[in-house]
Amino acid sequence: MAILLMLIPISLVLLGLAVAAFIWAVKRGQFDDLDTPALDILEDNDRPAPPPRPAADTASTDPTRGG
């Protein structure tokens, strides 16, 4: 029975966080347009893929690589 004294407040805090996250998502416009992203996959885009960057170019500009 004593565990309920700990679990009930924890569950209420988690519920509050979930409600706050939902309100934040609604205010940021996450649910404004639910139809267009689903239809984007059906479009026929005939744009060619961008050309790959040469390997020598990436090695000289990437500071994380050694050399």
User: How confident is the prediction overall: mean pLDDT?
Assistant: 83
Overall geometric form: elongated
Report strand %. under 5%
Total of DSSP H or I helical runs spanning 4+ residues:
3
Helix content: 40-55%
| DSSP summary, beta strand count | 0
| Radius of gyration, taken over Cα atoms and rounded to an integer in Å | 25 Å
Order of SSEs, N→C?
A: HHH
How would you summarize this macromolecular structure in one to three sentences?
The protein is mainly alpha-helical and 67 residues long. The chain has three helices and no strands.
Describe the structure.
The chain starts with a helix and ends in a 6-residue tail after the last helix. The protein is elongated. The protein has helices at residues 4-27, 36-40, 55-61. The protein is mainly α. The mean pLDDT is 83. It contains three helices and no strands.
Describe this protein with a few key phrases.
mainly alpha, single chain, 67 residues, elongated, 0% strand
Please give the structural blueprint.
Layout: H1 4-27, H2 36-40, H3 55-61
